[in-house]
């Protein structure tokens, strides 16, 4: 049976085909800019200017908002048609570095089409999605003669580097963030094959993002540790910075993954009934995906089902992401290291802010006798969340269930990734929308999007905006 949403979606997919040539042209324009935040200021500047030109071409009032000197500007675009409802699209135009370059089969800064995919840095994250959103609104206008909804675009240039200066924009211009719903980094819908309704994976509606507190931990020099590395024959007389750091790190977490920092667990809210209910419906798809994608025999601690989903979505985590000390080359060098350092990554859930974690971590080291460490919070986000029962989320579920009848729509309370959504949620509900598709290499060499994603994703953005405009 063809239902109302499916019939509209089918028509929109068919009509979106006319944009493919222009889509590829504009994506090629954006890909050519090496917009790596902080590393490529010229690429950042040129890409931001290019986006203003594109937005103006599509009829938007567009403007660059500077953040700080040497920071990436925020690109803002708006079309106010006097509608009762407003949709906001958050995107970013900065990209990951291209390293390692020798693994790319074609230039990361030139769009190339092969094997049914479009290749180039930013195709999947996030320049392609900018165009999905933009052409979706154009399709809506072309099909119905007028946009039925006001449209806003906020496109930042430092997301891949921690969104360090986005808050400069959001604090000064919070009125620009007010909307009835925000699609975060685009609504992406990829069919399994040429059949418009044949989707191999469920649509996921992700209602928030974990926070992130990323730390540098370093030992200090003399008089606690020697001024230089020392002959290891003198180990019995010389404080070893590597051992000191290892002992300090071992106090943070036990082998069952329990975080042992005093005060952390007391701040973590118990999962709500509504969040647990939506997580129960996901089943075992996540664990199977992890094992297949990472070549794992089993999941950490044999977590499965609702336990795994709860840990990933609703509980904090603590990870050592790097360790450095002493001699690391091939062969041997018999020394006592004078220095040691580590990088720690906390993923945060609501009520557990990066500022609070910074305070508690420092207190923990002092309490356990490791007050000779330098602890520095270098980047972070606070957590964000939109209720899984918010009307905007319910609308997205209704649309997605109707289009993708092969799979029920999964609602995820909080993604295990992080981002600056907490700066937006006081003003608008937010949601990541889309179904999983393999092989896009988001942060890796040969990043790409399937060409078969283009028409359905454009149509998906269009129908979401169309139905949001009708909401009472």
Summarize the structure in words:
By secondary structure, the protein is of the alpha/beta class. The protein has 2 domains: 4-207 and 386-470, 3-Layer(aba) Sandwich (Aminopeptidase), CATH 3.40.630; 211-275 and 312-381, Alpha-Beta Plaits (2-Layer Sandwich), CATH 3.30.70.360. The protein is 33% helix and 22% strand. Helix 4 crosses helix 13 and helix 12 (391-403) crosses helix 13 (452-470). The longest helix has 19 residues, at 452-470. The radius of gyration is 24 Å and the shape is globular.
Provide key terms for this protein:
six-stranded mixed β-sheet, alpha/beta, Aminopeptidase, single chain
Summarize the structure.
The protein has 472 residues and is α/β, with parallel strands linked by helices. Helix content is 33%, strand content 22%.
Could you please say which CATH topology of the largest domain applies here? Aminopeptidase
**Could you give a short account of the major beta sheet?**
8 strands, mixed
Q: How far apart lie the N and C ends?
A: 27 Å
Number of helices: 13
Strand order of the largest sheet: 1-2-6-3-7-18-8-16
Indicate the overall shape: globular
Q: Give helix % range.
A: 25-40%
Low-confidence stretches: none
Query: Which percent range describes the beta-strand content?
Result: 15-25%
CATH class of the largest domain: Alpha Beta
CATH superfamily heading of the largest domain: Zn peptidases
Number of strands: 19
Instruction: Provide the CATH architecture of the largest domain.
Output: 3-Layer(aba) Sandwich
User: Rg, please?
Assistant: 24 Å
Number of domains: 2
Task: Give me the secondary-structure category.
Answer: alpha/beta
Mean pLDDT equals 94
């Amino acid at each position: 049976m063809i239902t109302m949403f499916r019939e509209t979606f089918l028509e929109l997919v068919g009509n979106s085909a006319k944009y493919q040539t222009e889509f590829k042209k504009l994506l090629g324009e954006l890909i050519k800019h090496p917009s790596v935040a902080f590393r490529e200021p010229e690429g950042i500047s040129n890409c931001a200017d290019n986006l203003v030109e594109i937005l103006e071409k599509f009829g938007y009032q567009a403007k660059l908002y500077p953040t700080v000197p040497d920071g990436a500007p925020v690109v803002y675009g708006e079309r106010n048609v006097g509608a009762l409802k407003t949709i906001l699209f958050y995107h970013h135009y900065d990209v990951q570095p291209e390293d390692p370059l020798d693994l790319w089969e074609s230039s990361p800064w030139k769009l190339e089409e092969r094997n049914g995919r479009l290749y180039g840095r930013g195709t999947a994250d996030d320049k392609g999605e900018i165009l999905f959103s933009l052409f979706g609104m154009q399709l809506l206008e072309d099909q119905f003669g007028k946009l039925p909804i006001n449209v806003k675009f906020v496109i930042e240039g430092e997301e891949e580097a921690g969104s360090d200066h986005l808050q400069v924009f959001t604090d000064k211009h919070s009125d620009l963030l007010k909307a009835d719903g925000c699609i975060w980094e685009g609504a992406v819908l990829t069919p399994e094959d040429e059949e418009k309704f044949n989707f191999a994976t469920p649509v996921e509606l992700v209602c928030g993002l974990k926070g992130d507190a990323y730390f540098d931990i370093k030992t200090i020099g003399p008089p606690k540790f020697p001024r230089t590395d020392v002959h290891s024959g003198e180990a019995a007389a010389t404080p070893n910075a590597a051992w000191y750091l290892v002992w300090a790190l071992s106090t943070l977490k036990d082998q069952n993954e329990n975080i042992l920092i005093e005060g952390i667990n007391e701040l973590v809210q118990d999962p709500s009934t509504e969040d647990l209910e939506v997580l129960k419906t996901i089943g075992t798809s996540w664990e199977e995906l992890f094992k297949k994608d990472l070549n794992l025999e089993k999941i950490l601690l044999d977590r499965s089902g609702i336990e795994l989903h709860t840990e990933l979505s609703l509980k904090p985590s603590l990870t050592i992401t790097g360790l450095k000390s002493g001699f690391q080359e091939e062969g041997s060098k018999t020394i006592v290291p004078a220095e040691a350092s580590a990088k720690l990554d906390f993923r945060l859930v609501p009520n557990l802010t990066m500022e609070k974690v910074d305070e508690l971590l420092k207190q923990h080291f002092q309490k356990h006798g490791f007050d000779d460490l330098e602890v520095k919070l270098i980047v972070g986000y606070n957590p964000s969340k939109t209720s899984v029962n918010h009307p905007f989320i319910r609308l997205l579920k209704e649309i997605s269930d109707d289009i993708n009848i092969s799979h029920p729509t999964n609602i995820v309370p909080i993604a295990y990734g992080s981002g600056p959504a907490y700066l937006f949620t006081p003003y608008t509900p937010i949601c990541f929308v889309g179904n999983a598709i393999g092989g896009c290499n988001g942060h890796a060499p040969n990043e790409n999007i399937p060409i078969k994603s283009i028409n359905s994703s454009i149509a998906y953005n269009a129908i979401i905006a169309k139905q949001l405009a009708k909401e009472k």
